[in-house]
TrEMBL record:
PANTHER family: METAL TRANSPORT SYSTEM ATP-BINDING PROTEIN TM_0124-RELATED
Protein family (similarity comment): Belongs to the ABC transporter superfamily.
Keyword annotations of the record: ATP-binding, Nucleotide-binding, Transport
Domain of life (superkingdom): Bacteria
Name used for this protein in its record: ABC transporter ATP-binding protein
CDD domains: ABC_Metallic_Cations (cd03235)
Gene Ontology molecular function: any one: ATP binding
Source organism per UniProt: Viridibacillus soli
KW Transcription regulation (keyword) present: no
Amino acid sequence: MAQLPLIELKSVSFQYDYTQVLTNISLKVEQGDFLALLGPNGSGKSTLLKLILGLMKSTSGQIELFGQPANTFKHREWIGYVSQKSNSFNSGFPATVKEVVASGLTKKIGLFKRHLASQNSKVIQALRDVGMDGFADRNIGELSGGQQQRVFIARALVAEPKLLILDEPTVGIDHENVQSFYDMLASLNEDHQMTMILVTHDVDTVSNRISHVACLNQTIHFHGFKNDYDSLSADQLNAWYGHVVRKIHHTKEEKTQ
Ligand SMILES: Nc1ncnc2c1ncn2[C@@H]1O[C@H](COP(=O)(O)OP(=O)(O)OP(=O)(O)O)[C@@H](O)[C@H]1O
């Protein structure tokens, strides 16, 4: 039997007061997809994520999560989310890396229950998955922006989500570390079969890691395999985006595949 899509949007529209932001969005995200959601500033990417996460209600259309209507969906812990501005702790913030990651378990075990010793091993495993287990007892505020971002991904992972949504996770990560950051996401996708939705402007850097691309600018202009996205012309993309976008740089190896 075919698996249900993890996310299905059917003719979804949304407006803030009088501003129409999303129009007639239909989109399916399947198990194992690594989807890059692309679009210029103000194109509605964060709004779309907020609708999927149930933080706001669509003006019209339907959203289904794991085959259930979003408004009655009970398993919010199946969806991990790392927001755009999560990595901004100042150095005095009084929490260790381990404590920050453990706070991701509250969705599962309830806010006021004590974290058991068995939970500790989950915390360490999540930190290992993002290459940060050596920092467990450090103060979160002492870490670099990129290290903090990994810790916030570990915080999402510790609840064992089936789907991870990341809104521009590389903001604040220096250029040299962006590639290894995406390598880490790719190994979560490949080794843990974790479905990923990534809002990004780094399409060049992430290009060899993703399976699918969706181009959003108020509506979905393209959704398909990354290879089909690669064969779109720059003119086509510019018509959708209304400004000049660079095409993905193809490596020699990719071209010969
Ligand atoms: N709370 C709000 N009230 C009214 N309008 C809003 C609100 N939040 C966003 N908007 C508007 O909705 C549109 C889409 O915003 P959104 O944040 O979803 O875009 P985005 O694609 O995520 O942009 P960016 O790449 O800059 O993060 C923009 O025109 C924005 O001004």
